[in-house]
What does this fold into?
Amino acid sequence: MRAVAIVNGSARRARGRIRDKLSRALPNGVRFTESLDHARLTIRAEIARGVDLMILGGGDGTVVMGLTLIAEACRGMGRPEPAIGVLRLGSGNAIADTVGASDDAPRDLARLAQGSGTWKKVPMLDVLGMRAPFVGMGVDAQLLEDHEAIGRVVDRVPGVRRVVGGGIRYALSVALRSVPRFATTARPNVVVTNLGSPAIVMAKGGATGARIATGQALWSGACTLVAGATIPFFGFGLKMFAFANSDSARFHLRCGDAGLFEILRNTPAAFRGEYFSDHVTDFLCDRVAIELDRETAIEAGGELLGRRTHVELGLTAPVTLVSLDKVP
It folds into this structure.
């Protein structure tokens, strides 16, 4: 089995001594990339050589962009896509959580290169031509927007960039931008329409028995969050999609209008995968259209895709992800 690691050289956790440790874990098999174009060229070269396992190092955004570049290269060369391993090296690590990646990235890399782990096909979502295991419009995408805005300010201050890490930046963005914006700005109105096979209405105990036919509205009203996923995690350890693994032919869609205080009060439950509310409605579906009355931020796997008033979200071809068991 030929394995190669593509590591985001800009990832905060991929700097300093960790680079040497990663290189020793997979001798001559680690490629540090410094830009999107560099990553594209590197991935194309490795696909051309032939690779069975491509290990992506970074956060959720790095992994999602890597999946896009891998698909692009494989289509162009008529090659099958390799299996995908993930190293926890970013700020948002929902995909790393899903595959059991630990905080010891060099050890995980060595284990993956030696053939450890379980290979499993995981469905992806298609949105605006990108594949991702989760997509969101609303508060999650706003958090990413605010984090990027705070990051630009921090990076302009000499000497501060090196000492203000990802966790502090997120805390600053939530306190200084996200909470004030959420508390003072009216939420957009949204209509979510089922475009695929009958959608299954879910509740805390599972399927309710209700189904919504093609062409009918699943949900409408003021929107705090509309998000879909094929994996349970949503970044930062939040286990927001309890039904993501319930049906391989459908993804878990959550639509909600919860207010600020409910969100803050239920954050611990969200980390446990136990957040259910009268203000959140859950579905299993395979394709939907989302219409909003104003441009709203959208993110796919932690990657901001701009602002939209219309988006279609549907299942697409699966990716083979390699999951690692915990080391005692």
Q: What stands out?
A: The domain at 134-317 is CATH 2.60.200.40 (Tumour Suppressor Smad4).
